[in-house]
Design goal:
mainly alpha, three-stranded antiparallel sheet, two-stranded antiparallel sheet, 10 helices, 49% helix
Length: 242
């Protein structure tokens, strides 16, 4: 299973399911205490940072109504609350656990750890492709290029990039030789693990090298000092070659 990547549809789907699980559990807990099932509106954006406020409001309206209540189990006077609709069926615990599986939580938490590392390093990009294209436009300055190369390397070892590379190679989409196997992507840092960073593509031969190899190949099959091809000479003509 791949680690979730920032800004992807998989992440959005996961957050929607997690929102639904959160709502159902909060509503059920309130009903068990014989309180009005509601959730404070101001606490949801911090709980689900990857969903915009407009998108969050749109999804919540499917199952709850936004009201300013003077009484609620979790609110104070005049607090805006999302109150459960009468026709909304709270899913069972088994259904909720099937919506958000443990491995999905691990994939999400791994992404969070990767984002925290990038933030700690002061890197705002999340994918190496953006840096690769930018590097081609950078000035020919050693310090600038070294810094850009370091940023690119950090993006190559993010959890979502490494897991994506591994899945692509093990599921037959790409060849395993496309991975470095050893190097900076090794999580142990001392050769005890495997690096799933994509190996740099081999540089193609320059046209000059190709011409040289082609000339060398032609030279090996021609008669010295002539343009004749030794393989096309008759036996009599070949005997005359000194």
């Amino acid at each position: 299973m791949e680690v979730m990547s920032p800004g992807t549809k998989n992440l959005q789907t996961y957050m929607i399911n997690r929102l639904l699980v959160y709502m159902c559990r909060e509503f059920r807990a309130a009903e068990k205490r014989h309180f009005l099932p509601c959730i404070r509106a101001d606490e949801l954006p911090s709980q689900f940072p990857y969903l915009s406020e407009a998108f969050l409001r749109k999804k919540l309206k499917e199952h709850a109504n936004l009201q300013a209540l003077s009484f609620c189990s979790r609110g104070s006077n005049g607090q805006w609350m999302w109150v459960k609709k009468r026709n909304f069926r709270i899913f069972s615990e088994d259904e909720l656990r099937n919506m958000v599986k443990p491995e999905e939580v691990c994939a999400y938490e791994s992404m969070q750890a990767g984002l925290y590392r990038l933030k700690h390093l002061g890197i705002t990009e999340t994918h190496p492709s953006a840096i690769s294209s930018a590097m081609s436009r950078l000035p020919d300055d050693a310090i600038t290029l070294a810094a850009a190369s370091h940023i690119e390397r950090e993006l190559q070892i993010t959890p979502w990039n490494l897991s994506s590379n591994f899945v692509a190679c093990t599921q037959g989409k790409e060849n395993i030789e496309r991975l470095e196997i050893s190097g900076v992507g090794d999580p142990s840092g001392r050769g005890l693990g495997f690096s799933y960073v994509r190996a740099a593509p081999k540089a193609s031969m320059s046209s000059a090298v190709v011409k040289k190899k082609s000339a060398a190949t032609r030279g090996g099959s021609t008669v010295t000092g002539t343009d004749a091809d030794l393989r096309r000479l008759s036996m009599e003509a070949a005997r005359e070659v000194h």
